[in-house]
Design a protein that fits this description.
Two copies of one chain form a homodimer. Chain A is mainly alpha-helical. Chain A has two domains: 12-74, Winged helix-like DNA-binding domain superfamily/Winged helix DNA-binding domain (Arc Repressor Mutant, subunit A); 79-246, GntR ligand-binding domain-like (Four Helix Bundle (Hemerythrin (Met), subunit A)). In chain A, 70% of the residues lie in helices and 3% in strands. The first copy, chain A, contains eleven helices and three strands; from the N terminus they run αβααββαααααααα. Chain A has helices at residues 12-25, 37-44, 48-61, 79-102, 107-124, 131-151, 155-164, 175-180, 183-204, 208-232, 235-246, and strands at 34-35, 64-66, 72-74. Chain A has a three-stranded antiparallel beta sheet with strand order 1-3-2. In chain A, β2 and β3 (72-74) form a beta hairpin. The first copy, chain A, is globular, with a radius of gyration of 19 Å. The interface between A and B is medium-sized, with 28 and 28 residues. The structure holds a DNA duplex.
Chain lengths: 250, 250
DNA sequence: TAGGCACTTGTTGTATACATAATGAATTCA
DNA sequence: TGAATTCATTATGTATACAACAAGTGCCTA
């Protein structure tokens, strides 16, 4: 019925949700802008019912805000909001690291984590790092964090972390690339990699408090990276990136 | 159209959400049970569209789980899940206390918090405490925690706390009452009240780390209370209470 | 000319109809 | 008698029609 009816296996609701999230994160829908259901119907190809379901999901996800008189608008985040989100994520990931350490992650279950860590090792050793290396880092870093969350062995915690997910390197569109031009960003990656090593070491040695403290400090690197970005680009350009940073589960 | 069309100011979606949440929390819908949309239509009085919206919201809230083949079922929680949820909440509230301390909550903004604390003081001083006092404690304690969250001055954090809200004393139906028979429960309340005092003192003195540490320990009282309940009642009886503890934003 | 009122238009909230997929039962065959 | 297959029933996913409401516009009046 619509221009793109590829992948019939995915429900209309999910497709609408993905499409709308994409529009928000790329900045096509701007913060504070009201979302018209009919317009969303046109751009997503789904009908009003699945579009409304997607809107509800995106609201619960935190990307949209309900308007009292009805409908939804794109949520706007301040710089403080983003920094707080990073702190929250760090706190929760710290707890995940503690759980992994205290509940005795087995040597075998630690293997994938160490593998991701080693892969990151290879990347950051380049000097200067290539754009491709940065891009690969984004993927590997996400995997490292996802594995750590899994190692916590706690479904409720994992759920909260997904909700809080403020992935500083998750942007697919230029945010990280812009950073790659700054040598400071490379330094941050080196430090981040070092943190990874310490956390894994702490987990192996069952040092829960140490693992937690390092993970919390680790997240603050994202805040540093953000401030770096804010200094080097205009605020307006960054808005989509800010939402990317806040966006969960991308 | 239906038997109860009271309060027309509330939307059908919200009413369906409240009705379904009530059915889940009171145990009328049991964990693992599939929720039939048509049945929900009958019991809530709303039509399928608002019912479906409510189901989606409840899933995002964490009370329901999507079934791969379609539809939703009531989520089942293990004792470990509940304990982890309590730990997560404590961790986030610890961060809230830290924020309140470090960001300099004014003396004036602390007033409502201290008022709630003083009110709790009055209650726990009774010996033995009455059932009514316990009930009042539930309300006041919820207010104290809500005010503390507000004092953090962080919307993203407040959002996460609402999601994680595992209110050990939030049960309206018997959970706390059963505990009131145990003198141990009164002791826990006395300790909890002491924690409140320490947290407020730490915030006033700008001791962020101290405020955070005490709040985290404070949440563990809920875990103690839960274990107490698990020892004194059968597991089956407790299932609704367990879900109550997990349930957010009641 | 300015303000208010009424109307029109477009929006969202709700209900229902239709299509498709899953589940269960009954019947048939081995 | 047991198992498998087919058919019927019922569930959910989707689309659309209807109703109520809000907002914006234009006209009329003071």
């Amino acid at each position: 019925m619509s221009e793109r009816d590829s992948d019939r296996s995915v429900s209309q609701t999910v497709r609408a949700q993905l499409a709308l999230r994409d529009q928000i994160l790329t900045g096509r829908l701007r913060p504070g802008e009201r979302i018209s259901e009919l317009q969303a119907v046109e751009t997503t190809g789904a009908s009003r019912t699945p579009v409304r379901m997607a809107l509800v999901r995106l609201e619960e996800e935190g990307l949209l805000e309900a308007i009292p008189s009805g409908g939804f608008m794109v949520k706007a985040f301040s710089e403080r909001d983003i920094l707080d989100s990073i702190e929250v994520r760090g706190t929760l990931e710290g707890l995940a690291a503690r759980f992994a350490a205290e509940r005795g992650a087995s040597a075998r279950s630690l293997e994938p984590l160490k593998q991701a860590m080693d892969d990151i090792d290879q990347l950051v050793r380049q000097d200067p790092v290539s754009e491709e290396a940065f891009s690969a880092y984004v993927t590997l870093n996400a995997r490292f964090h996802a594995l750590l969350t899994e190692l916590s062995g706690s479904a409720p915690l994992a759920r909260q972390i997904d909700r809080a997910a403020a992935l500083p390197f998750a942007s697919p569109s230029g945010f990280v690339m812009a950073q790659s031009k700054l040598p400071e960003a490379h330094q941050i990656l080196l430090i981040a990699n070092d943190h990874h090593h310490i956390v894994v070491d702490a987990i192996e040695n069952r040092e829960g408090s140490r693992a937690e403290a390092v993970m919390r400090e680790h997240a603050r690197l994202a805040a540093r990276n953000l401030r770096l970005a804010l200094r080097s680009r205009t605020h307006l350009d960054l808005l989509p990136a800010l939402r990317l940073i806040q966006s969960p589960a991308i």
